[in-house]
Amino acid sequence: MRHTISLSLFLAAFWLLNSGHYSALMLSLGAISIVTVLYIVHRMDVVDHESQPIHLTLKFPVYYAWLIKEIVLANILVVKHIWLSNKSITPTIKTIKASQKTDIGKVIYANSITLTPGTVTVNMEGDQFMVHALLHESIEELEAGDMDRRVTELEN
Amino acid sequence: MDTLIETSSFLFLLIGSFLCISGGVGILKFPDFYTRMHAVGVTETLATAMILIGLMLQNPDALVLLKLLFILLLTLLIGPTASHALAQAAIKNGLKPELHKK
Amino acid sequence: MLTAATLAILIVMFMAICRVVVGPTLYDRILAVNMFGTKTVLLISLLGFVMGRPEFLDIAIVYSLINFISVIAVLRYSDSSIFHHSKQQK
Lengths: 156, 102, 90
Known about the structure:
Radius of gyration of chain C: 16 Å
Number of strands of chain C: 0
Strand content of chain C: under 5%
Strand content of chain A: 5-15%
Largest sheet of chain C: none
Structural class of chain A: alpha+beta
Largest sheet of chain A: 3 strands, antiparallel
Helix content of chain C: over 70%
Shape of chain C: elongated
Radius of gyration of chain A: 20 Å
Oligomer: heterotrimer
Number of domains of chain C: 1
């Protein structure tokens, strides 16, 4: 039930943002489409804690603030190596282990790795992530496990 | 106050353009597909964010601001997903990455 | 500054087109087309501001969604044989 409410609030905000008209006709059309979407989504049975992770809402801002800092630092590093010669890059592929229990934790971790420039999750099997990195140091940083620890804290 | 906003918007747009050009140079210069992916990563995260923040500072209208924020969130969600799908397809179909030799 | 940023985006789009033409593998081309698409989204938003018509942002949102779907749709066919990487493709 909580997930349905959060989804309908999200859809209502989405409609208001994209329409920008607040006449009675437009609002009622919006309400009808929200109800239709909710009906279809319930039939597809995808409204659960994975599509609407509201139990993580309070922890998200702290984690993403930290992630934005990491993204900025990684961007500076990659841009530096773009302008240096090709000999300065050290492309590496390595399999690293993720310590998250739930699927959503693993997805957040893999997504964070890919969102940070310089590292891309190429493949994941179970808790083994295959990561391609532009620089050898980025892999070492991931292996040190700071991001892994933060995502695990996030899901608990 | 207005000058401050103007100047910061100018700076954000400037940094964003520079990062975009860097990504463009990277995609031309890097040796193989997997390294080029990192160059695209730069243009999809910070460069997009900088340019959109620069645009946000130009316009006080709340609806426009929210739409820009929405485009930013959409890009940040879509970018990694598309990169990962592409990388996975490449590795499954046997495209070997050029690795650094020690 | 808006015009300069638009020009920068156009230059980057030109670079992406160069990568699409040069290749060498299919994946390089898909990657460059994807980057071209995200730059188009930025270009549309910038042009909306240059022309003083923020309504363009709606088009930008739709374009970014279409861009994502097109990349995923192309990759749906990654099981087919033309995607298998071999030396001849180079």
